[in-house]
Design brief:
heterodimer, A: alpha+beta, 2 domains, eleven-stranded mixed β-sheet, B: alpha/beta, Rossmann fold, 9 strands
Chain lengths: 412, 240
């Protein structure tokens, strides 16, 4: 039966291949969308880890998260150095990373921080930042680059560059007088860290004219009476014990001297992802429709082949094939088409992932890995084949009826 | 081996929805091993009679016996099985699946029939042949095909060769009855005679009953017995 179906399909090579191609492309699209959706969500959740609280001036949680972690949008309000010192003094704070945003280097955001950033900041599954080359900044005029910045601007250790005030491309107030020297380049993380430039707070203070002259890196630490900058955008806090976060969040939100907001990054990420899920559902619906189109193409091809195959059916009937055999012949043809199509789709997916993932990462920032098929993906494949199976009952039923009506007479 | 192969008794057949019967045959018998020519013009109900004998359509009970089976009482599946096992059918033309080789077309005959497979197994044990494929090849050679034709796709063969392949498939696995529905009408006279000769020889060898249907009266001299369908059928042709 299968051999007969294969031989018959081979006889109709052109339409069979087109049908298989349609199924393969729709499978590729469905799996691709699912993978982008799944891995984007994963990457998204991986951008920050180990940080218990993000503190900024009073603002919405999404805005604080987007600007401090993703460097998207701007924070209009800042928190004062005094508030930062207060946060450090809170009981249970294990570490703290100040962040001052707002400047940029070309399209890349400049983040002013302390060396604590390289020590305590974690992403993905509690992974620490590592250096590809060089080390953390040690002087006010040194900087650390994310791997993408270094790659696209072709900067290495000891190269010089200048940053601009304000974010995004063209700026009217460049800080040309204060060039920075690259002290290190970070390893790839697959997070917004790759796209950012890190400078010491004191360096920012100098280019902004808040502090004059050469300041030691020790100025970032609080034994120095003059702060390197007067305002910060956000502070990342790590606590001694996680359950403290809830109480501390309340304490910070009700801090008397300055209106502050504290958010828990995990919670804020989930909330943000939920707002994006509508988009994700639309994408999914489109790919389901493409799969439906592919399967309908198969249905059309099988149905239109029935007319020219009446002779074949009559021959099969003459040698003793019952109508039930004709029915299962059509069903097996559909299954063969669907299984080959789906397999080709999967092969195409891994080809695209293998060849195109670098291009995707540099051009869209989407990190896709050629991981094995997940349970969800397997169930999608099974659903496509099951749908093909059910749809094939239509041409199979037609062929069954034709076989009964035509008998051995061949209508040409 | 003698006995009755086909027996019609007061067969009446009428298509559903038709006002008059198409066939009404009081009595008609074909003996086993007999080679019979059934002659009839097109539209005389020939094809209908053949499809009843082949078990495609159902007569009423007790009107048609084929190889001892009352065709009116068999189920669809039983009739399909009887045809697969015991009846070889040759069409006027387009007998073969064009995308399979001549040999694969012949082997199709045992695809749906366990009885044919078993008979081939038996004859393999009796002869020196090694495989079913080899047996199909021998049969094709016997019917006048060359070795190179045997492996070619059927659509590359000439019409005469295709009809020989069809005959080989009908004979493969030694069924009791061959029904040939105008098998020579697409052939020229030279090919026609040689086709009938090889068909006869093969039928004789296996003691196969041959029911040969044609509109061509000039073939009658080949046959032991020749019958006009109009003589059998009581439904007058003018009224059709």
């Amino acid at each position: 039966m299968i051999r007969l179906a294969l031989a018959s399909l081979f006889n109709r090579k052109a339409s069979a291949w087109l049908t298989i191609l349609a199924i393969a492309v729709s499978t590729l699209l469905l799996l691709g969308v699912e993978r982008v959706r799944h891995q984007t969500q994963e990457n998204f959740a991986n951008t920050i880890s180990g940080t218990d609280l993000i503190v900024g001036a009073r603002t919405g949680s999404t805005q604080l998260l987007l600007s401090s972690v993703f460097h998207i949008g701007t924070l209009n309000n800042t928190l004062s150095w005094q508030s930062y010192e207060h946060l450090q003094s809170l009981r249970g704070v294990a570490w703290h990373i100040p962040l001052a945003l707002g400047d940029s280097y070309g399209e890349f955001p400049v983040v002013a921080t302390t060396t604590d950033f390289f020590q305590y900041f974690q992403y993905a599954d509690k992974q620490q930042l590592r250096f590809n080359e060089g080390a953390a900044f040690s002087h006010a005029d040194t900087a650390v680059l994310g791997v993408e910045v270094a790659k696209r601007r072709q900067l290495g250790v000891n190269d010089q560059f200048t940053i601009a005030h304000g974010s995004g491309g063209i700026s009217f107030s460049d800080h040309d007088a204060h060039p920075f020297v690259v002290s290190g380049v970070l390893q790839r993380t697959g997070t917004p860290v790759d796209q950012a430039v890190y400078i010491p707070l004191s360096g920012l203070g100098i280019v902004h004219g808040e502090v004059h002259g050469e300041v030691s890196i020790a100025a970032d630490h609080h034994d120095y009476h003059e702060p390197p900058v007067y305002t910060l955008s956000a502070v990342l806090l790590g606590l001694n014990s996680r359950p403290l976060a809830l109480r501390m969040q309340r304490d910070i939100n009700t801090y008397q001297d300055e209106p502050l907001s504290a958010i828990m990054p995990g919670l804020a990420l989930t909330e943000l992802w939920r707002t994006l899920s509508l988009f994700e559902k639309a994408l999914f619906a489109v790919s389901i429709l493409v799969v439906a189109t592919g399967l309908l193409g198969m249905l059309t091809a099988l149905l239109s082949s029935l007319r020219e195959r009446r002779r074949e059916m009559a021959v099969l009937r003459a040698i003793g094939a019952g109508p039930a055999t004709i029915f299962s012949l059509l069903v097996s043809e559909a299954l063969i088409l669907a299984i080959i199509g789906v397999s080709l789709g999967v092969a195409a997916l891994y080809t695209v992932l293998g060849l195109g993932s670098d291009w995707l990462l540099t051009n869209t920032g989407i990190l896709l890995r050629a991981t094995p098929l997940t349970g969800t993906e397997w169930s999608f494949l099974a659903a496509i084949i099951a749908a093909a199976f059910v749809l094939s009952f239509i041409p199979a039923w037609r062929a069954y009826r034709n076989a009964l009506a035509d008998g051995l007479t061949i209508r040409l | 081996m003698t006995g009755t192969c086909i027996e019609l008794k007061n067969l009446e057949f009428q298509w559903p929805g038709a006002t008059r019967p198409l066939l009404s045959i009081p009595q008609f018998t074909v003996q086993q091993g007999e080679r019979l020519l059934l002659r009839g013009a097109s539209g005389s109900g020939k094809s209908t009679l053949l499809s009843l004998i082949a078990g495609i359509h159902t007569p009423k009970a007790h009107q048609l016996q084929v190889l001892g089976h009352d065709m009116g009482q068999l189920s669809q599946r039983q009739r399909d099985n009887l045809r697969a096992n015991e009846i070889g059918y040759i069409f006027q033309q387009f007998n073969l699946l064009p995308y399979l080789s001549a040999q694969a077309n012949v082997l199709l005959a045992e695809h749906f029939s366990t009885a044919r497979r078993q008979r081939i197994e038996q004859s393999l044990r009796a002869s020196k042949l090694s495989s079913h494929k080899e047996q199909a090849r021998q049969l094709l050679l016997q019917l006048g095909l060359s070795d190179s034709d045997i492996t070619r796709p059927a659509h590359q063969l000439s019409v005469g060769q295709q009809q020989r392949v069809a005959a080989a498939r009908a004979l493969f696995g030694a069924p009791a009855l061959i029904i040939a529905d105008e098998p020579t009408s697409a052939l020229d006279s030279e090919h026609r005679d040689s086709f009938i000769q090889v068909l006869f020889a093969a039928c004789q060898q296996h003691n196969t009953t041959l029911l040969f249907v044609t509109h061509d009266a000039s073939l009658a001299h080949h046959f032991e017995r020749s019958i006009e369908l109009t003589e059998l059928n009581q439904v007058s042709q003018e009224s059709l």
